[in-house]
Structures are given as structure tokens and as C-alpha cells.
Amino acid sequence: MSYELWSQDVFSKGELSPYMYARATVNEYGLGLKVAQNVLTYPTGAAGKRFGTLFNTGLPGQTATDNLYFQTFQYVNECVYQLVFLPDLVLIYLEGILQATVSGTGLSASQVFNISSTVLGTIFRIAYPGLTNHPKDLKRAPNSGLNITGFTSGTLVIGAATFTIGQVFPVQFSGSALPTSTPALGKSITYFMLALSATTVAIFSNPTDAKYNTPGAAFVFSDAGTSAVLTVQNTWSIANSVFKNLPIYDFNSATTSYDALTFTPSAVTGTGVTITVSGAGYTPLDSSYVGGAFIGGGGTSRITAVASATSFTVSIQTPFDATTPIQGSLALLAEPAWSDTRGWPQVCSSYQNRSLFANTLSLPNGFYASVINDYTDFGDLTTDDDDAISWYPSSGDVNFIRFIVPYRSLTVHTNTGIYSSPLSDIAAITPSNFTLQLQDSTPADVLLPQAIDNQVLVLSGDDAHQMLWDGINNAYTSDIVSVPSEHLIRNPMDETAFADLRRAGSRYVFIINAMGSMAIFQTLISQSVAGFTPAIMEQSYGHAMFIQAASSSDGRCWFVIRREIAAAQSPIAITAFSPYVAGPPIVLSTLTAVASNLPTDDVTAITFTTTGTLPASTPAISISTYYWAVGVTTDTFNVYLSQEDALAGVNAIAFTSAGTSSNVITWPVAAQYNLEELTQDTYLDCASYFNNNGSPTSTITTGNLYNAQEVAMVGDGFGFTAEGINNQVTFVAHGITTPVNEGYIGFPIHTIIEPMPLSMANGSNAKNTTLTKPKHIRTMRFMFNNTIGGQINGVDIALNPFNQANIGLPPIPERGFVELFINKGWDDFNNPSYTITHSDPFNIELLGAFYSVEI
Fold it and tell me: I want to staple 362 with a disulfide (CB 3.0 to 4.6 A). Which of 141, 342, 650, 693 is the partner?
């Protein structure tokens, strides 16, 4: 029997698949975890609690998970909007505050769900499926100017304004003399206003400070200026994209021969030039050719009108050699590549100051890039370096383009694989050097690939392919990076890349599954970090799901979350009761409320009201308290003190009367779609921030989010738990209401960290392992950092001795060791030596686990 010391101090591979449990000799085994629920790994190797989310707002009228498209809109260098596309509607948010709604988009539910989008300066451009569905541009314009009529307490008074308190808008100033302020204002510069009243606003340099009215961040005004005007920048519209020129394509070349025809131009240069068609043969000339092209006889021209099957008019771009007839076999007669007849692009992107489109119903492999710095011009008749580009990639099979991802090169993702623009040429793409070369046969099937950390992550089915940029070979190389954690990606529905600028080296891709869980892929290639961990949303009553995510380049990320929120129904009179019968058989006591219709296979929160007396019971019931009911019939139900008892069907309340003039109010859950922002300021989900501005109170009004829910809170640095009741949460410590000034309220994040079965290398051969050999773990030491709370095998984590605890002061994140004398048996393969759990509203970071083992 030998005594060994063994340690694991790197967890960067995240949670490993059950198929990895026996692969003890591979590198991933020693760097991974058996369970890493709601965990983020650090590039340095630690494993910590994942981020929380801040509640921004509920999305009005949203009822389904597959009829929305969520994306951020970086508006030049001013701010980041959050856009929610719904059928025939766009919701526009700034800092989670609704700015505007734009209706009449004409998009159906399925089209919304399959939107492709790109940002072109001040334009948010979308493309979407369908034959006649023209790409659209979402734009912002200024409102009518509002006169500044005065100032008060350092803020501005706006004449004829009707603001709502709390509104935040981008604004610009103009006039003979701007208001004097500290710092000074400038013309044509965007600032952000916070409405303090219907006519009074504070001005800030950024929208975040405006939202939170950050102390000391507001401009301080000492006069109202002269004829000064404040203009809100918040008039939004969406309309079909306008194009100067369209790309061309000869759709009839395969079925119609022009060899026997001749085309005679009436002039070699100019506009309104007539071309006459003569000779035997069929010509399909009609109005669909307007906007198309005629090329031949040394010249190129754009068709401006079609008079008949034998005559059309052109605008000449490159002169013809002569006005002599041009043989049809030496000419090109083409339609516009896009139209209501041939279809419009269904995929869009942007690259090197070009707008990009791809995939019409007629040309699913068509790829198009606009003229440089002109997002409306796709005319491809000439081949100057800044001209438009058209390309049709092929690979010996039918190709259709699903996605365009601009990165180190331009990658185009089709049903057959990944294509890239030239990799060895560092110059800009041009009509003369452009090509699309097949890089890999991995197709991106349903989700837009994400570019991050020197790679493009491609989801193909349930596999995540890491397309690495190889600078030496000027190529992309492929690796299925999700294999060690293959169980975490299941039917992915959305993904987004996120660079966390507050944690060193943290680069992520968030992959949201159809079931509502999220696989978090952390990557830092320079440190050989590549691992997945699962994240789930939880709440004590009802369910919560990740739906979609979107990030911005300034290190922020937002999620659309589907939550089931308890809502009070109309009171129903209690008309009778039945007593408890000891049995056999045992008969539980019931209350009767006609047509209460409580489900018999689930539990429902209820409350009681009365203008007389409540039903008598053991234990006694009261108003303003949630109880839990299970239906017996459509009119009768059992009542329990706790949700756990109701689920287990034990300890039902025994009634001895129905009371008088009493009612039951049922609180079933209903789906609500929320906009929530990723935050590391609190470790709670759907968190609400409060600040009582120096007037502490124990009861915080929260709205309906937490009704009948078990929530966790942070108040003035202390942790609390409570149940939301009637749109409020009360802070209570040791049975005493506790006034608090500042903090957060939200759903706890349940973190679980469990190691892989213990395996140590045995001897000099790396293939030798003690995985299946009996071992006796005597003690374990765990090193933590930045940690408050948590348990190991149900034992509280205490990093300080009792005499070092700060009694009466808020807990401080600590670093230190915890040692457990486990003395486990000799067969620990299926029974983990330890499990770390953490549900406190604080952080936990595991730096390492250190074993003392007998073998």
C-alpha cells in the first residue's frame, strides 16, 4: 500500500461527456470536470461561478420562441441598440428602455426567425427568405427640434416637451448659442438625455450614465443658451433597400440561343441608345430585362427600357466599337440577377466597406459585393478595383449559400462546406483578384458561424467545428472541438460570440439549445484553453429558458429569456370543504371553489382573501401568504404549506370549515419574454437593482417577476433569501425585517462542481492509470479565491477561522484552503469524493483540489 499526493489545478476543459469517464489517459481527463453546472472556467485554470443577468424589460406581446430575431445595433460610436424583430413589428431598445416600435415590416413569423442582418454605418440591413422579399434597411432620423426655455438645478427645461419620467434618448443641440455647461456642449455631437419630468432633462455623455442617473456624471448647466434647440434622435423607419444598380445574370443562356441574332446599336456612346434585334430565332425580351445589361462589340451597357421583342434602349458605360451589327454568339443579354420574378437575396453581411448579399431562390449560390463605400451599387459591368463583385461558388454539387462570415478573410458557408476569399493576398478584394476557394467540407446548417479568437466556430448538427486560421499555410484548418463535451450541444437554436473585457483573456461563444439550456464555449488558443460548460436558468416556480443572445464589441451581452411568471386570477368563492379521513384509505382534506380548474398533475400557487372568516384549518391559514394547491376535480383541491410538500403529496392542510365570505385566488404561471443583460456586478439571474438613496427600507417593490418565487438578495453587502409576495420582496434577517439601502434581488444561480473519478498516472507509462484500482482518499484540500459561501458535500465552506470572522459586517470575498477528512471507501468510481455546490448570491472560484490517497 502506497501513500500518494495528487492534485488537479486546471479545469479549463470544462464539463466532460460521460463517454470521457474512462478515458483517463487523455489530456482532457485531467483538465476537466464531471459536472460544471453554471460554471465559467478561467484561462488560468480556475473554475468559478458564471455571470448573472440584469432584468431590463419584458417584451410586449411576445408569445412564441420561434417568431423573433434578436440582435444588437452598434450605432456608429454613439451607443448600442437592442433590436427585437417580431412578425410585422420591430422593438427598439437602448439600455433596455424601449425607444420606438416600427410596424408594417411585412415579415411573417418564419421569416423573422430566419433573418440575416448586418450593420452598415447608420443602417441596419436585413435579408430574409422568400421570392419577392426585398432586403430592408432600418434607419434612425432626428425628431422635430424642441426649444430650450430655461434651466433649473443644473438641468434643462424643454418647451412643448411631453417626456415620460425615466425615458433615455440620444439628443443633439443646435442654435445661436448653446447652453453653457460643465463640461461644455458641442454642436452635432450626440449626448443622452434622462427625463426627470415631462419638461426637465438631465444630459449625459453616454446612455448607461443616463439610465442610472450616475451621480456626478450629468452635465451642469448655468444658462439656457440663445435660441437653443434640443433635437431627439429617435425617428425610426424600415423600408426596402434602395439600389442604384443591380448585378446581372443571363438566366436564358441554357435554353435560348442568340447565335442567329444580331444586335445593332444606334450609337457607340451615350444614353437612350436604341439597339435593334434582327434575324431568325427566339428572343425573350420584355420588361424583366430593364436594369439588365447588353455586352458585345467591345462595349457594355445597362438596359433602361424594352420597347418590343426586337428593340430596347440602353445607357452605354463602355463605348461600342462601331454601330455595325453585333453577332449574337459574341454578345451577352442579361436580366437583373435580383427581382420579384427571380428572387431577392436572402443572406447579407459586410466586408471591407462593401455590402454583401447572397442566395436568391433562382441563384442560391450567387454571391454579390457592392461597390466600395457605396452600399447601394451592385453594378458588375465594369471591373475597376472598387467596382462590385459577383461570384457563383461550386464544388461538383448543388451549392446554396447559408451564411457569410467576414473575418481574416471572407468566409462563405454553403450546404457543402466552407469557402474563403484569397488567403495569401493581403490586399483588398477586387473584381480581378476575387475568388472563393473551398476550405473544408463542413456545412454550417442552421446558425451563423461565429468569428472569435483567431478562429471561426461552425455548428454543424450538434458538432462544433473550430476553423483555425493557419497563418503559415494561409489556410483554415478544421477540428471538431466539442467531442469531449458532446452532450452539451443538442439541437442548437442560436449562438453569439462574446469577448468579456472585464476578465483577462476571456473569449466565449454562447450556444443556446432548443431545450433552453446554454453551452458556453470558452476559448483562448494562445493558452490552449478550449472547453464547454453548461448554463441553465432556474426558478422555484415554473420554468425559465435561454432563447436568443446578442453581444456588442464593448464587452456587453444581452439575452432573450422565456420565464414563467405567476399572475393572479379572479377570486373564486370557497363554498365547501371536506375533512381529513385517517382511513384506511386516507382521504385528504379539500376545499371547494366551483370551476377553480386547478391542474391535477402539477402544483399551483394560491392565496386567500376574505371579508368574513377564513376557512378553519390545521395549521391555520392566513391572507398575504402563498400556499400550494393540487386539483382533485374541476371544483375541489388540496392545499399545502410548501411547494415541496405539494409535489410530494404529503402534509396536506386539514380543513374543518369553509369559512365565510372567503375566496381563493389562483396564481398560475404564464410565459413572459424578458430582455436581460449579462452582468458580473451580481451573481443572480433576472436581477433587479435598487438604491434607496440613503433612506433604507426593508420592503422593495419589484413588479410581478418574483411573485410566489424563492429569491436571493444582496442588501448592503449581506445575503438574504425571501419569497416574492404581491409584487414586493421583504428583507428579513433572523426573523426581523431589515432596512437596506442598495442591492439586488433575483433568482439564485445554482452552481455544481464535481470532479472526474480519481485517476493518477502509475509508473513511467502514460497509459498506466489507477482509475479502476481501489483507492482510499484520506484527506482533500481545496483552494478557493474570491469566494463567499457554498458547501462541500453539504458542509459550509469556511475560509476563515471563527475568531477571524467579521461579525456584523458584510462578508468579504476570501482566499484560502478548506481541508476535509473524507476517508472514503475503496471504490469511488461511481461515488464522487466531493461535490461543491453554491447557491449564494456571491461568487465562488475553485483554484485547485489536492488529494492525499492510499493505493
Answer: 342
pLDDT tops 90 at residue 854: no
Torsion of CA 16, 20, 26, 28, to 10 degrees: 0
Give φ, ψ of 594 to 5 degrees: -60, 130
**SS3 of 434-488:** CCCEEEECCCCCCCCCEEECCEEEEEECCEEEEEEEECCCCEEEEEECCHHHHHH
**Looking up cell 449574337, which residue turns up?**
328
Q: Comparing C-alpha atoms, which of 848, 673, 714 is closest to residue 48?
A: 848
**Are residues 851 and 821 in contact, defined by beta-carbon separation less than 8 angstroms?**
no
Q: What is the chain's length? A: 855
Residue with cell 417593490: 701
Start-to-end CA distance of the chain, whole Å, equals: 6
What CA–CA distance (Å, rounded) separates 236 from 136?
A: 13
Distances (CA, A) of 31 to 87, 741, 769: 46, 43, 15
Pairing of strands 200-204, 191-195: antiparallel
Task: Provide the grid cell at 611.
Answer: 371579508
- Taking the CB of residue 619, how many other CB atoms lie within 10 A of it? 9
The 10s digit of each residue's pLDDT in 63-86 is 899 999 999 999 999 999 999 999
In this structure, what C-alpha cell is assigned to residue 234? 429617435
How far is residue 830 from each of residues 189, 347, 485, 757, 779, measured CA to CA in Å?
64, 49, 19, 7, 19
Cβ 190 vs Cβ 170: under 8 Å: yes
> Which tens digit of pLDDT belongs to each residue from 350-408?
999 999 999 999 999 999 999 999 999 999 998 899 999 999 988 777 789 999 999 88
How many beta carbons lie within 10 A of that of residue 579, not counting itself? 12
Q: How many whole angstroms separate alpha carbon 581 and alpha carbon 159?
A: 73
Closest CA to 780 of 3, 7, 47: 7
**Which residues 6+ apart lie within 8 Å of 19 measured at CB?**
486
- What sections of 763-806 are H helices per DSSP? none
pTM score of the predicted model:
0.94
For residues 240 and 136, the answer to whether their CB atoms sit within 8 Å is: yes
Q: Three-class SS of residue 295?
A: strand
